[in-house]
Amino acid sequence: MDPELKRLSQFDEEIQKIARQFRLDCFPQEFDVIPAQKMLEILAYRFPVNFSHWSFGRDYEREKTRYEYGFGVPYEVVLNSDPSRAYLMNTNPFPVQVMVMAHVYAHNDFMKNSFYFRPTRRDILPSASEAAIRFQKYEKRFGLEEVEHVVDSGIAIEVNIDPDFFIREESEEEQKERLSTPSARPEIPGAYDDLIARKKPDRPPSNHYDKKTPLEPERDVLLYIINHSPKPLREWEKDVLSVIRDQSRYFMPQRRTKIMNEGWATFWHMKIMDRLFKEGLLNAEEHGYYNLYNARVLATNPRMPNPYLVGLKMFEDIEDRWNTGKFGREWEECKDPKKREAWDLGLGQGREKIFEVRRRFSDRFFIEEFLTEKLVEDLDLYLYEGKQEHGEIRYVISDRDWRRIKNLLVSQLSTFGTPLILVEDGDYKGKRELYLKHAFEGIELDQEYREKTLERIFYLWDRPVHLESVVDGNGVVFSFDGTSHTSTKNP
Amino acid sequence: MAIKKQDWRLSQRGLKDAARHRQKIKESIQKNIAEIISDASIITRKKGQIVKVPIRGLKTYHFIHKRESSGGTGTGQGEGEKGDVIGRQPTPDRRPGQPGEQPGVDFLETEIDIEELIEMMLKDLGLPNLKKKPFAETVIPKGWRFESIEKKGLIAHLDKKRTLKEAVKRTSAFLGELMRRTGETEESCRKALTIAKGDLLRAERILREGNLSEETQPFIPLFSEDLRYRTLERDIEYQSNAVVLAMMDVSGSMGTMKKYLARSFFFWLVEFLRQIYNHVQIRFIAHTTEAKLVDEYEFFHRGESGGTFCYSAYDLAIHLVETEYSPVRWNVYPFHFSDGEDFDPMKTVASTKRLMELGVCMLGYGEIQADPYNASRLMDAFENQLHLEKRHIGTGDFRVLFGTDQATPFLGAILKEKSHVYLALREFLRKEKGS
Fold it and tell me: Residue A479: is its pLDDT beyond 90?
């Protein structure tokens, strides 16, 4: 066994011991030491083996360039599976490997214990490599471009799926049953209920739901198209789209807990690394090396908050507040800065609190609940806008008000940064055209991306597609009929 | 063991898909090549430099919120006051299939060098790669020169050095033979050979009879078969030269856009000729009512008020061809751009005819009609006087006019927008290929 691997194994055991002392609760953890090329491939393809697509190739090349120019922060990939699987790049210096391992154990704990990760399939790895083989067969049989078209289109709406899929999984029959008996209609809470007022029809005629499709506005646009496209989609096309949808569902928990998950992992890797140094297992030089890389992980980006840094500072703040009792009515109402400064009720509930937060919260509620005015200041967050001036676009800081910053973050995180699109009618005008609705939450859609995405949906639906949205405060319906884009005012 | 180091058989998937992405980029370039070749960032580079064209990576589309670059609001992190600029980028130049860039994570830039771009254009044109064709060569007589060495010839062409060399060679062979046959020293043999005046048999006899007189000085005798003469041959040189005589109206009516079109065209013309000829020169003739030789910078940046006599440029071109660029040695490509305004089109036609009579490869005239209301059109005069044939190319309003016989290597093009530069080049190359 090569000596570095042996030393890594010793550290692995040591880290596990420390993690247990910190009360982290992990799946069994497996590490693979892999060459850089493989790591870059996993980053681009999301899995160790996945189906082929030019966009993965593009990302692979981009990751490769970043790696070769030394831009990247230490690469870390950990997959949500049982046992948990993570990768270490063989070109990383030893102390960086140790840092990544410590970081991975905290991710592992997060994924095992977060409420949002519970319903995910932990057998995704073999299913991705099986899909790779099937897609290859499709390429041979139906042609590369055919398959590419379907993948392009599927990827275009891969995030337009139901984020709460694990709460509400009912068949259409059950759905019809539920909707037709108004008295027995249970109100099922969803992530967007505060954003979209659900329609409450006044006792629809008894046959109302016989023809209606979808029965109620459908969040899973991709699934709806797979099941209802009048094209009709062939079996292999449905397979391709289903694979894309499954992978997207698999990553949904990561998408909605990015800040928390990275913050949590950073919080613990710092604690574990300090312990290893104190125990004399890492020498000063190695610890210095680690500090250098850790600083890169925590570097700020002028155009996007760093989730590692934001999450870390928030967990530290929560721990401190619940240790000292800086919460509740008395604390809120105290306006005396000196008193606030010296506030310490000696509760010591910090550790317990952060473990509870990691179990119950998603980013949206995490930010809403725990991002304080002081944190916004300490984290140097701001709002910015792009302005066209002198033949260039200038990005200018537009606001430092903590409430508005928080509001924007919360509204972006409500839909994980992507707009919410619903299928309103799959038989629009009685001609099986597709009518989609953007649940407008105050931010308009990007025109270029909107048009291109509609074109891709058209490819799957093969009849005119419409999208209701808002531009400059006015309702507009955008349509694509296969050749041209049109828009009409929506009264 | 929780930590493994397996032998990873590296898949080629990443590389393969990356190649597919590049191929798709190429296809998208090919679709938009007319726009790309007239792109300013390519044309304003200096000649001879390796030019790279930035091409944006292809995007994966989905519904997204309005971006910060188009007026949306984003959150950022770092120091700075309200109003501080935290980043900037050039305004995206939107063109079909080449949408504006997205800041941040999705941005990717690829480079393609000019050779590759030209190759794509050739492919698009259905032309073979010119580089595979040997350079077009011109045979030029340069006078006479001594070519080979013969045993017979005029005494005036006697090559003394070579003759002496032959004599030495022969003498030493004789000496060796004498020494072998008689067993005498080299010096005695040399003396004997001298007395015998180079006759090998006589020298042998003299040696055997012992009739060597002491005072004989050895020398190397010359025989008629030692004589070598030089012969004369016609001297021919193979050359591969082309010159572009770039002519342009720089009077007030030629606006920036018109010059830009002319500039794009000249840039690509020179690039293409470089593929065919070893050596390509370009001379710049700017004219209003008078023509002047200028440098490249002045050519594109000078603007003068006043009238326009296009013939002045053609006359200067004729002068250049007669004094510096004889069509015997040079492949001459005069190209003229104007907006069609000419105070004396008939005189211009006459000068054009003279220039063609000198034997230029192709005379090009590009009329840039960016304004709908141009007074007189030089092209009309050319069309009538040179009996040109007119043809519409493509779906737009691009037209070319060309000479119908061998004596009229004329190509005229009417350019109205950027994409016409490419169409004009394409017609030019078609004609070149045909000839």
Answer: yes
Say if the Cβ atoms of A384 and B86 lie within 8 Å: yes
- The answer to the question of residue B45 being in a domain is no
Q: Considering only CB atoms, which chain A residues are within 8 Å of B41?
A: none
Given A60, A385, A444, which is nearest B17 (Cβ)? A60
| Shortest distance, CA B38 to any CA of chain A (angstroms) | 19
Q: Which domain holds residue A103?
A: 3-114+257-297
Predicted ipTM of the assembly: 0.85
The Cβ of residue A437 has, within 10 Å, a number of other Cβ atoms equal to 19
Let me know if residue A409 belongs to a domain. yes
Residue B185 within a domain: yes
Report CB contact under 8 Å: B63, A5. no
Contacts of A212 (CB under 8 A, 6+ apart): none
**Residue of chain A minimizing CA distance to B78:** A380
Are A274 and A249 contained in the same domain? no
B169 plus B256 within the same structural domain: no
Instruction: Tell me the pLDDT tens digit for each residue of A31-49.
Output: 999 988 889 899 999 998 9
Instruction: Out of B64, B68, B77, name the one closest to residue A379 (CB).
Output: B77
Question: Chain B closest CA to A464's CA: distance in Å?
Answer: 18
A377 or A119, greater pLDDT: A377
Is residue B46 situated within a structural domain? no
B345 and B385 part of one domain: yes
Asked whether the beta carbons of residue B5 and residue A33 sit closer than 8 angstroms, the reply is yes
Which of A40, A383, A418 is the closest to B75 by Cβ? A383
Structural domain total, chain B: 2
- Whether residues B86 and A35 touch (CB distance < 8 A) is answered with no
SS (H, E, C) chain B: CCEECCCCCCCCHHHHHHHHHHHHHHHHHHHCHHHHHCCHHHHCCCCCCCCEEEEECCCCCCCCECCHHHCCEEEEECCCCCCCEEEEEECCCCECCECCCCCHHHCCEEEEEHHHHHHHHHHHHCCCCHHHCCCCCEEEEEEEEEEEEECCCCHHHECHHHHHHHHHHHHHHHHHHHHHHHCCCHHHHHHHHHHCCCCHHHHHHHHHHCCCCCCCCCCCCCCHHHCCEEEEEEEEEEECEEEEEEEEECECCCCHHHHHHHHHHHHHHHHHHHHHCCEEEEEEEEECCCEEEECHHHHHHCCECCCCCHHHHHHHHHHHHHHCCCCCCCEEEEEEEECCCCCCHHHHHHHHHHHHHCCCCCEEEEEECCCCCCCCCHHHHHHHHCCCEEEEECCCCEEEEECCCCCCCEEEEEECCCHHHHHHHHHHHHHHHHC
Q: How many CB pairs under 8 A join A and B?
A: 247
Euclidean distance between CA atoms A197 and A54, whole angstroms? 40
| Contact assignment for A303 to B103 by CB distance below 8 Å | yes
Statement: the pTM of the whole predicted model exceeds 0.90: no
Among B10, B67, B74, select the one facing A38 at the smallest CB separation. Answer: B10
A10 touches chain B (CB under 8 A): no
Which residues form the domain of B166? Answer: 149-232
Q: How far is A1 from chain B (nearest CA, A)?
A: 10
Instruction: Look at residues B282, B274, B358 and name the one whose alpha carbon lies nearest to residue B323.
Output: B358
Nearest CA in chain B to A306: B77
* Mean pLDDT over the full length of chain A: 88
Mark yes or no for CB contact B17/A53 under 8 Å: yes
Smallest Cα distance from A39 to chain B, Å: 11
Distance from CA of A377 to the nearest CA of B (A): 10
Closest residue to A446, CB basis, from B67, B85, B90:
B67
**pLDDT tens per residue, range B296-355:** 778 877 777 777 889 999 999 999 999 988 888 888 889 998 888 888 889 999 999 999
Helix (H) / strand (E) containing A119: none
